[in-house]
């Protein structure tokens, strides 16, 4: 067993960021160390974000836990999930493990080609079969456009802050689906967006956050 990871997860449970047994088990199963850079392996089980290059970070464990709790029911009952700005690939693995249905599928969309490669390499350490079977798939592209071919999605996680909610992502959210997304410039708010069976959208603001912007590739690399 991994003592440091266990301690991290225990703390998140005590702090009530983790509320459910399933999120607890998933955070224990996905080894964050496999998703951080060589120079940060020693910090893998600390509760803060870590640089992964290209002005991107792997989010802090408490934000991963928080997002998984919000998406829990949609992931457990859904068959298709989307992770926009998939970065290290960590959440693609975690979201996949939350899903209970056969044929479940997680699509990660990332615009930095090197991070697409890096995340596939990270995932191949423990999720090679899922990559082969295309149950976990990383697509290089602009996440603001989603990935229409595989939609609609019962769960969408956006890991970078949009200035406004991208219309394409709203369109690709299934009826009964839920999207979690940081929105705003500077002061960002984490939003939970539910689409009901009639297609009506409900938005809740749940938390102030700080995420890397969801932007153009050149702006991210050269700003
Ligand atoms: N959930 C990821 C977060 C990575 S940081 C993790 O924990 O590892 C946010 C990511 O969003 C970065 O990898 C960045 O390259 C990506 N990103 C930003 N704007 C994007 C866009 N328009 N399309 C696709 N990916 C984008």
TrEMBL record:
It comes from Paramecium primaurelia. PANTHER family: PROTEIN-L-ISOASPARTATE O-METHYLTRANSFERASE, PROTEIN-L-ISOASPARTATE(D-ASPARTATE) O-METHYLTRANSFERASE. It comes from the Eukaryota. It is found in: Cytoplasm, Cytosol. Pfam families: PCMT (PF01135). It catalyses: [protein]-L-isoaspartate + S-adenosyl-L-methionine = [protein]-L-isoaspartate alpha-methyl ester + S-adenosyl-L-homocysteine. GO terms for molecular function: protein-L-isoaspartate (D-aspartate) O-methyltransferase activity. Keywords: Cytoplasm, Methyltransferase, S-adenosyl-L-methionine, Transferase. This is L-isoaspartyl protein carboxyl methyltransferase. Coiled coil: none annotated. Monomer. InterPro entries: PCMT. Initiates the repair of damaged proteins by catalyzing methyl esterification of L-isoaspartyl and D-aspartyl residues produced by spontaneous isomerization and racemization of L-aspartyl and L-asparaginyl residues in aging peptides and proteins. One of its GO terms (biological process) is methylation. GO terms for cellular component: cytosol. The keyword Methyltransferase applies. CDD domains: AdoMet_MTases (cd02440).
